[in-house]
Amino acid sequence: MKKLLLVLLIVMVLTSAFGQFARINTIRVIADGTIDAQGGMKISFRWVFPTNALYMQVKSTFPNPYVLLRNLTTFSSIFELTNTKISYDDAKNSILVDTDVIGAVVNRKGRWEFNLGKGAELVHATDQMAIFVLVNAASSEEVIFTTMKLNLPSGCSELKYDPASGVFSFNMKRKNVSGSVSADVNAKVKPRIMSALYKVYGMPDVMDGAYWVAKFILMNKGKGDIVDLRISYKLGDYTSWSPESVYDVVPPNGAVVDLYYPIISSNVTQLRSQTPVDLQIKYSYKDRSGKTYSDTIIKRIQMLGVNQFEFSNVPEEERTGSWIDNFSNSPLLAAFVTYLDDVVKSFVGLVSQYSGGAGAALKDKDAIAFMKSLYDLAIHNGISYQTPSGFLVEYASLGQDVKYPRDVLRDKAGTCLDLAILFAAVGQAVSLKSYLVVMPGHAFTVIELPSGDILPIETTGLGGPVVGKSATFEQAVEMAMELLGKLEFGKFFIVDIGEMQRKGVLPPELPQLPSTIIKDWGYTLPRATGGTAGGSTPQTTTPQTGTGTQPRPSQPSTTVVNLTGVFEGTYRNSITGQQGTLEFYIEQSGSTVKGTAWADQDMGDFTGTVSGNNVKITAKMESSAYGTSYVVVFNGTVQGNAIQGTYTVQGTNVSGTFQVKRTQ
């Protein structure tokens, strides 16, 4: 089912929604389907959440379970469903779904095929039944374990599953049925497609197949078999006719659902505004007597300009008005992060020159210095923030304009999203893992430092007519960290640029520009004040956020505090808002500390260092409940008898804030 149960986009970015800092949670999915002799399927499945807290978090975010199914799976997008019923089962922390799948199983090359999805394992099979197991890591803390039982019609044999294609196939004995045929044909099309994403539309594996351009549905309402069904598509002058999709037999009361993933010419990137394009679908079929029937369907759609972005992939008639409905395409923004663009590379060279040329991806302090140089260089060259009304809040059916990094550099201005994309592109260009955080009304950049700590940056701190005087880099980091703490479950996307592009969300090919374009646009380095030959080397400073990640200062200072004692308090997960108890038993000797930490029921030993009023603690925590271990890094500031700061769980996207006070 094209990874039917690689579900919960929210869970994919969800960090522990309860209690401990990090734990492995298993979301169980039990699916039971029955395939009939015409290729239809009745299927029910149950998602079972590991805790009531996580279940209630999901339910409160999606009180309408139909929105949950539509937004958090590709199932309803790639298949044609009828008689769907969805409900919450509070007693069992479960979501229940029952639905009929039209044309789930089709006949091709003499065998019946069902697109189950890649990566499953066929663990048991008879002529009447097949059982599959599928395990997916939804995030670093959640695993989705799926068992699926498929009941087959009588007369089946030679069951096979191909993990590479995801197709489950079998032979089925049946008699040919002669008689009149009557085809009920419907073609669903995306009313708008994005020229910026022309590569995505041609790859069925991207986002589990959700980005088809056309869905052709043929139902045989006659009394005889439809045979040799052939379907082909053409998208204006931007594609040639597609290879024919061929289906051997469509039984009476059977159906075929065929999806179109066009190979689109890069010429679409020349479009600057939406342009009408005719999508043609031609099809033909025969009855058992050999009589041929054929027709052509023409649907007019809009091809958006190369800078226009359609924020939702949910059909307009199905939208509920919820933010996640209206901005479900947010992960595709990764295609605008053109870090391999020669224009971006030239600008990165200027930033590297200003920062002193150190490898940004080698040490935290070098990465921070590089991003600070980027921010300061943007201010020096007049890059400023501007925003339209309702941006990332109200859905715009005609798409919203989004700039590529080269456009921001040319115009020296951009919205919060444009500037976040620029900073993410520069980060990716120097091998710093970069993320876009998209939330109602706003977007900003998060950089993952070499140690695994995070460096969020609020790019709207850049000056301009909207905000006036620019904020400092340290203030920009502090503002972004505060925004991380305000994220609401179900109302944000964290877009992993590198991961999305590896999955096929690739940037478009953009026109070649002169190699001197950055200089031609007037970019310069600040006047040298004793730094490198190309410009002054910015002083590496620790962003003093109080609620943000505080990487090591570039110059350690003399130890002036004594932390020996017991500290008790709380922590707060910045993503989910959940809180828990935190304790430290600290022994200090000079500038080093060691001891034991407790986070709810988890505990572990730690070591650390003290520098001035700053303390960094690295704790290896053990979870007795789940039998796992994980490493937490605390960065705090000592204020009297209290310590407050941030924590991150190494190797995950889990982060948050903490504050403790001395009790002994």
Oligomer: single chain
Q: Report the CATH topology name of the largest domain.
A: C8orf32 fold
Strand order, biggest sheet?
28-29-30-31-32-33-34-35
How much of the sequence lies in strands comes to: 35-45%
Number of strands: 35
Biased composition (Low complexity): 528-556
Protein name: Transglutaminase-like domain-containing protein
Organism: Pseudothermotoga hypogea
Region (Disordered): 528-558
Précis, in short:
The protein is an alpha+beta fold.
Structural description of this entry:
With 664 residues, the chain is α+β, with helices and mostly antiparallel strands. The chain has 4 domains: 9-172, no CATH class; 183-306, Immunoglobulins (Immunoglobulin-like, Sandwich), CATH 2.60.40; 323-520, C8orf32 fold, CATH 3.10.620; 565-662, Quinohemoprotein amine dehydrogenase alpha subunit, domain 2 (Lipocalin). The protein contains 13 helices and 35 strands. Strand 7 and strand 8 (129-137) form a beta hairpin. Residues 528-556 have a biased composition (Low complexity). This is Transglutaminase-like domain-containing protein. Residues 528-558 are annotated as: Disordered.
List the helices and strands and how they pair.
Layout: H1 9-13, E1 25-35, E2 41-48, H2 52-61, H3 65-72, H4 75-78, E3 80-89, E4 94-102, E5 105-108, E6 111-115, E7 121-126, E8 129-137, E9 142-151, E10 156-162, E11 167-172, E12 183-189, E13 192-194, H5 198-201, E14 214-220, E15 226-235, E16 245-250, E17 255-260, E18 275-286, E19 292-304, E20 308-309, H6 323-326, H7 342-355, H8 364-380, E21 384-385, E22 400-401, H9 405-411, E23 413-414, H10 416-429, E24 434-439, E25 442-448, E26 454-457, H11 473-484, E27 493-496, H12 497-502, H13 517-520, E28 565-573, E29 579-589, E30 592-599, E31 602-611, E32 614-623, E33 628-639, E34 642-649, E35 655-662
Parallel strand pairs: 1-9, 13-19, 21-23
Antiparallel strand pairs: 1-2, 2-4, 3-4, 5-6, 6-11, 7-8, 8-9, 10-11, 12-14, 14-17, 15-16, 15-18, 18-19, 20-22, 24-25, 24-27, 25-26, 28-29, 28-35, 29-30, 30-31, 31-32, 32-33, 33-34, 34-35
Helix pairs in contact: 7-8, 9-10
Biased composition (Low complexity): 528-556
Protein name: Transglutaminase-like domain-containing protein
Region (Disordered): 528-558
